[in-house]
Write a structure and sequence with these properties.
Layout (H helix, E strand, L loop, with lengths): L1 H26 L4 E2 L6 E4 L2 H10 L2 H6 L1 E2 L22 E3 L8 H8 L24 E4 L4 H4 L7 E8 L2 E11 L3 E4 L5 E2 L3 E2 L1 E7 L11 E8 L1 H6 L7 E5 L8 H5 L3 E4 L6 E6 L11 E6 L1 E2 L4 E5 L10 E4 L10 E9 L5 E5 L6 H8 L2
Parallel strand pairs: 3-7, 14-20
Antiparallel strand pairs: 1-2, 2-12, 4-14, 5-16, 6-7, 6-11, 7-8, 8-13, 9-10, 11-12, 12-13, 15-16, 15-19, 17-18, 18-21, 19-20, 20-21
Length: 356
């Protein structure tokens, strides 16, 4: 009888170990590579999406660490001989549903009160000849408006712990764009547990949080870690009320194959400014930083990775506002960072395969 009991407990223990190992494997999905020269993607189960919704509480969001930027070696001035630009193209953005704010207030009342509605002192001044910068969603007139609320924090898990980057909505199909190094660590592998919070304000989520459904990067990013390929797209699931992100905030347009010299407004949640609690913007003219690499004056550092560089910025109207790059990396203290110029070699194949 004793032997049978011990055998029974042994079987139970083996079953528990098997279940735990299965859960651990599901936490880091298998990579699915699609065809030669295509993109690489992973997908979440419905159960996985629900777990992501549960894990990213406000406390967890506030505890997440900013993702460090990769170092970028820009082209020297005498090497500024860009390759062919390619045929320029763009897609337009779209506005949110008219009742979006009313719905959000009812669904997320705490995020619309207290620390979610304070006014910050207006003491930001631009830096002549380099860039102009200002805070965004610390101000009530901005964080509730297009295109400001299309930008948010992207939370995820890495082997060293929970982290965050910046991302923005770029498709009516609930797809966001961010930096490749916020999805797949070069030399590390896939990260996991992504959750997007548009208009995130000091950990508050006035429009809810949205779990990842699938994520996609370029094999060239996985294999080389080159800045020109540091782009990723993620399709989002619905929030806890079953509502898609575009119903609340609409989406930005995107453009590709445009000239290196453009006037951009770059958005991010930089940890070196207001501890990354609010969005911040640098406005400046971009320059050639290497083939399919843009440079731009800005003082944002860690946490701003993946933030959109918006070309033809037009606030308060779904006109223009094309994402033309995302923050990739730079050297802190130089007041300059770099990003992949959107082109046929990065955003186009990603969006074609993801269904932007």
């Amino acid at each position: 009888m004793f032997k049978n009991k011990r055998l029974g407990w042994t079987i139970v223990c083996l079953l528990l170990v098997t279940i735990l190992l299965t859960v651990a494997v599901q936490a880091r999905p298998t990579v699915q590579v699609q065809g030669q020269g295509a993109t690489a993607s992973i997908a979440a189960t419905e159960a996985g999406q629900q777990e992501v919704l549960k894990m990213w509480t406000r406390e967890a969001r506030l505890a997440a660490k900013p993702m460090p930027m990769p170092a970028v070696s820009p082209a020297e001035p005498d090497q500024a001989d860009p390759q062919s630009l390619g045929k320029a193209g763009f897609t337009n953005g779209g506005a949110a549903q008219p009742s979006a704010d009313l719905k959000a207030r009812r669904q997320f009342p705490e995020a619309w009160q207290g620390t979610g509605d304070e006014q910050l002192p207006d003491d930001i001044a631009g830096t002549p000849a380099i860039y102009t910068s200002y805070r965004v969603n610390g101000y009530a007139p901005m964080w509730k408006k297009y295109p400001f609320y299309t930008v948010g924090r992207l939370y995820f898990t890495t082997p060293s712990g929970n982290s965050y980057c910046t991302a923005s909505v770029i498709s009516p199909n609930n797809i966001i764009v961010t930096a490749g190094h916020c999805v797949y660590g070069y030399g590390v592998g896939w990260y996991w547990n992504w959750s997007f919070v548009p208009a995130d304000r000091n950990g508050a989520a006035p429009y809810g949080s949205f779990p990842w459904a699938s994520a996609r990067v370029l094999p060239n990013w996985q294999n080389t870690g080159a800045t020109r390929y540091d782009v990723a797209v993620i399709t989002l699931g619905n929030n806890q009320y079953g509502v898609p992100v575009t119903n609340y905030v609409g989406w930005l347009g995107r453009s590709w194959n445009y000239d290196y010299v453009q006037h951009h407004h770059a958005f991010g949640y930089p940890s070196n400014i207001m501890a990354g609690k609010y969005t911040y913007v640098c406005a400046a003219e971009s320059f050639y930083g290497g083939d399919d690499v843009l440079g731009m004056g800005c003082d944002m550092t860690f946490g701003s990775s993946g933030g959109p560089w918006i070309r033809s910025f037009w606030p308060y109207a779904a006109v223009g506002d094309w994402v033309n790059s995302v923050v990739s990396g730079g050297t802190p203290g130089t007041n300059t960072f770099y990003g992949a110029r959107f082109s046929d070699f990065n955003i186009v194949p990603l969006c074609n395969d993801q269904g932007c």
